[in-house]
Amino acid sequence: MTTHHEVVIVGAGISGIATAIKLREAGVTDLAIVEKADTYGGTWRANTYPGCACDVPSALYSFSFAPKADWSRVYGKQPEILAYIDQVARAHDLPAVTEFGVEVLEAAWDDSASLWRIDTNVGARTARFVVAAAGPWNEPNIPDIPGLADFEGEVFHSARWNHDYDLTGKRVAVIGSGASAVQFVPEIRKEAERVHLFQRTAHWVLPKPDYTAPGVQKWALGRLPLVNKVVQTVEYGILEGVGAAFHRPKPLMQALQGVGQAYLRTVVRDKKLRAKLTPDYMMGCKRILFSNSYLQALTKPNVDVHATAVEHIRGSTVVGADGTSAEVDAIIIGTGFHILDMPVANRVRGSDGRTLDDHWQGSPEAYLGTVVSGFPNAFIVLGPSLGTAHSSAFSIAEAQVEFIARAVSQAREQGWASLEVSADAQAAYVAEVQAALPGTAYNLSQCHSYYIDRNGRNSFSWPWSTTELTRRVSRFDPSVFEIVRSESVELSA
């Protein structure tokens, strides 16, 4: 038996929750959120590793329609963020339209019926509109390391943390030194007998202006809206200043890099270790990391930094490409996610029967990061070319959700059977983005980051300000869409 909804939203994280709430406000009552996990939260549900926290100030890290002012810290930690997301979902009665434990196996557009046919692990669904809100920080990226599958000890990815495994007294290898490792390495080194960090590439680390918010600060932010607004405005301005450094790396990013160099010299006194931790590229072409404890942890006597990629694993020994090795009891993988090679791209088929992956051929693209030519009545939240490396995912998602709500509302009002962005409009937009990226820190040739896809193109980054993103991405323009009208389409009230 097939279940039908006007809108099916895939994913119950920040993006899916915002989409459902705003579509309901627009009058769409027949919608469903399908989520393969058993709770709300998305990436904040999946990442429970020790020390997990946000690197965007808490004042800017909440829904505009459900602001949270009484954060316990300047930068929120995972449990508090997850609790907030869950609270918002329940306050808006989303459990009534959410189906947990439902994984989408394939979604295919049926042109003759002007609807999506969705195959899941618990049965079939159909929908007029589909919103992919699973996000890019969803599927862990497990490196293909010879011998990893045969490792004799414990192995897990940071986004699938095994809390039942006791690290006390263990010898632990950490593969990867990015945003997750920066947070969990300082925590696990307190318990482990020894930590071996295998660092293929050094990262720029800046101090994090974080602290526990005193009671008077929480009271003022929670009870005095003007104070909270001033704090938000100041912090937004600071982040936009950082964004300007990405867009004009010389001299703005060079000045910021000077702060990173001074911080490294102050914390790491050992010259050999400092050399290992000094990046050989300008700050900004990889994600900037923020921590008050990571560099400090690497100076501790029970931490070894191997400035090399892992070549192979032999028995219980991890061997680096430079010949160094470490015998360990456990391996923790901190190599991030499938950002630009999202597994969902192989599960969605458009009007020509080809998947998103077939269309993209390794270089994801979408008009305004939200709609793709060849995929009618389908939307992506936090899609290609919307990464800013400095601003809140909430603001990006909300801009897209406003676009989606306007598109769906107009389709319902006008009796459109389908709407699909034209290939020409998409190509022109992608060309404009790509033309603006050269000269930014994102596209510096000195390093290879997850911003760059397998074809060597930056399919991740937004080259302009967050203000411009919000203004532009939230605007729905029917003139760039190919619209099929049908009087036979049944519209939900």
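The above is record 1. Record 2 follows with the same two-line structure.
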Amino acid sequence: MDTPQISAPSRAPSSGVVHLNTRHTSRFTVVGNHLTQHSELSLTAIGLAAHIQSLPAGARIGIKHLAERFPESETRIAAALRELEAHGYLKRTRERLPSGRVVTRTVSYNQPVTGGASRAAVPQPQPQLKPQPRPVRPAPVPRPEASTPAPAPLPPCPSLPRPEVHDLDRHRAALDLLADLRRHEPRLLLGEEDICRLAPAVAAWFERDAHPDAVRRTLVADLPEPLTRPAGLLAHRLTALLPPPLPTAPAEEAAPRRDPLQNCDGCDRAFRAPEPGHCRECRTDLKEAA
């Protein structure tokens, strides 16, 4: 059974740290003193850089993932990542995939680099032989073309809908719905100013007989990834998906009015007329006209 080789200094210093080192043969990472003894990096940034350099390629190092792994808060981890970027130990770029999703590419450097980090990380192509120059031909004279019209200005963003009649109870219900969205979707945590700005638009939905559950489902469903501006997304949905007012129910057509039954004063037969009198056959005026 092999005995680990432990080396100690032949002469211990009178004060300070004493190193007892064991030689590693597997599962170790080489970290330069330029990082571990950096005079401008914080201790959190140094430790985070050493952790990232020890991870395999493809490991997740997002802020939320690191905050779940370590006791530091997301704010301290984000600040440490910015320190490593500023001193050339880390580079993060955002790329859009063919599917339309935006992802963050992270490159870790075990040697600090400056602004030419991308050139240092990517091997440069071998120089190629310079092609022989071709005979220079006079460039054709460009024909005058019609001036390209300036692009039309973009239409202004539509304003948020507002209710036609201000109702205090409806406005309070809108405030409660917006403040409660984070219970259903943590990413929809809104500030007080955004809630007050969006509340009239939600009240306009209530004014058009939209149920609160239907409004909540519309605002929470199919959120994009990543969600960077929750208030802007909610403002767009409240404006673009505003339901139309319900149509007015058609009034019932009045039944045709019929004259009451009367008994003829002449023949005592029943007939319909607005007032008592003679029937058509007993009326003298009709007989004389005939």
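Confidence is low (pLDDT under 50) at residues 116-126.
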